[in-house]
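User: quick one - fold this with calcium ion bound?
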Amino acid sequence: MRLLVVEDEKDVANALHVGLSRDGYAVDIAENGNKALEALAVNNFDLLVLDLNLPDMDGLDICHLAREKQPPLLILILTARGKQKDIVTGLNNGADDYLIKPFHLQELLARIRALLRRDLRTREPILRIQDISLDPVEKVVWKSDHRIQLTRKEFGILEYLMRHPNEVISQEDLLEHVWGTMTNVFSNTVRVHIQSLREKFEDDSTKAKYIETIIGTSYRFIQPEHESIESKNNKESANE
Ligand code: CA
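Assistant: Sure. Structure tokens for the protein plus calcium ion:
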């Protein structure tokens, strides 16, 4: 995750740089509005922490421009302007959140995490096929309402198969997408993991309900016809 912090007060900028980096973000600092616009034109950021009182322009103009040019960018305004009408103006100009100075670093970090999590959630909805649900964000799987514990590789295989329901996925595809191209694994590795997944889902390889074996070395996650029509309709209505 890459963040741009627009802040003209050196001490605040430094504190933000240290605090955000420690939380695992890549952080760029722009000390005025023009530098911010330059950085936004050149780089792709996930989130913008934006001061409003800048030496060369009003941060609200940056907010407005950034929102127009990069709709997915998350914007958090961090400012001393704390009147209710300022907050409303900020949010109306496209900000996703608004925090008033002086602020606590821990609160800022929590708000940034919440914004990014919410964003990830809209991009990564829970996958549901038959009675299996898989949450790609929290990395958990349920069968009906019973949580199933999977290893990371089992989770990776299941996620890949569920993202391509009813498609025949070869062992090589799974090795490439779950293990990565550089790994050297034994040829029966995939089979062993599929076997373990089946046991956890109480699936039967000879009469599969979830994961079917195709010609010995390929697999297919079974999505019943009525469900695929439903999800197709859902997608179409979501696109309207
Ligand atoms: Ca300022």
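One thing worth noting: The first strand starts at residue 2 and ends at 6.
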